[in-house]
Design brief:
Blueprint lengths: L2 H24 L14 E5 L4 E6 L2 E7 L21 E11 L3 E6 L4 H10 L8 E3 L22 E2 L2 H10 L5 E5 L1
Parallel strand pairs: 1-8, 6-7
Antiparallel strand pairs: 1-2, 2-3, 4-5, 4-8, 5-6
Length: 177
C-alpha cells in the first residue's frame, strides 16, 4: 500500500474503534426488563455504588450509579454533597429537568428534619434519581468513573428511561451505606 492509503486506512480503523468503544459504553441495557414489570422497592447501596430494583423481595435488576463527591456518611445538611440514608418514597417525577428525567425522593423525612433542626441547619432537599445532564448523554457508563452529583443518584439515560417506566410514584426507596 502506498502511504496515503495506509494513513487513510489507519484513520478509518481508529475512528471505527473509537465509535465502537463509545457505543459499547453507552449502549442500552442488553437485558431490558419486560414491559409489564413494576418494581415495588428501590435499594440504593452507597458503598457498592449500586441501585437495585425489587418486586416482592426478588431482585429484578441492578445498575451502577454515581453519587455526590462526598458520599461517606449520612446527609446532614444542605450543600454537604452527600446522599441521604434512610427510607423514603418516589414522590414525583420531573420529565423536564436539567438532567435526562428525574425521580424525586421524599428526602427529608421527619427524622432528617428533626436532626437538622437540632443542629441549626437546613437538611436540604431535591434528592433525585436522574440521568445524565442534558446534552451529555453520550458519556453513558463512563459517568460512574467519578462521583459528580450534588447528592443525587445518577444512572445513564437509557437506565433512567427503564427505571422511570417500572418504578411508580409511591415506591419505597431504601438508601443504605
Amino acid at each position: 500500500m502506498n502511504k496515503p492509503i495506509k494513513v487513510t486506512f489507519s484513520i478509518l480503523v481508529a475512528v471505527s474503534l473509537l465509535v465502537g468503544g463509545i457505543a459499547l459504553l453507552t449502549n442500552t441495557s442488553q437485558h431490558p426488563l419486560p414491559t409489564e414489570t413494576v418494581a415495588d422497592k428501590v435499594l440504593i447501596e452507597k458503598k457498592a455504588r449500586r441501585l437495585t430494583l425489587f418486586k416482592n423481595g426478588r431482585s429484578l435488576k441492578a445498575y451502577r450509579v454515581a453519587l455526590g463527591p462526598n458520599p461517606e456518611g449520612k446527609k446532614v445538611e444542605e450543600g454537604d454533597k452527600r446522599t441521604p440514608e434512610g427510607t423514603y418514597v418516589i414522590d414525583r417525577r420531573k420529565e423536564r429537568s436539567s438532567y435526562h428525567r428525574a425521580l424525586h425522593i421524599s428526602y427529608p423525612n421527619p427524622d432528617d428534619i428533626a436532626q437538622a433542626k437540632a443542629r441549626g441547619v437546613s437538611p436540604g432537599g431535591d434528592i433525585m434519581v436522574h440521568g445524565l445532564p442534558n446534552g451529555l448523554g453520550f458519556f453513558g457508563k463512563l459517568h460512574v468513573k467519578r462521583d459528580w452529583t450534588l447528592g443525587c443518584i445518577a444512572v445513564t439515560n437509557s437506565e433512567i428511561d427503564e427505571i422511570w417506566r417500572v418504578v411508580p410514584d409511591g415506591t419505597t426507596v431504601e438508601i443504605v451505606r
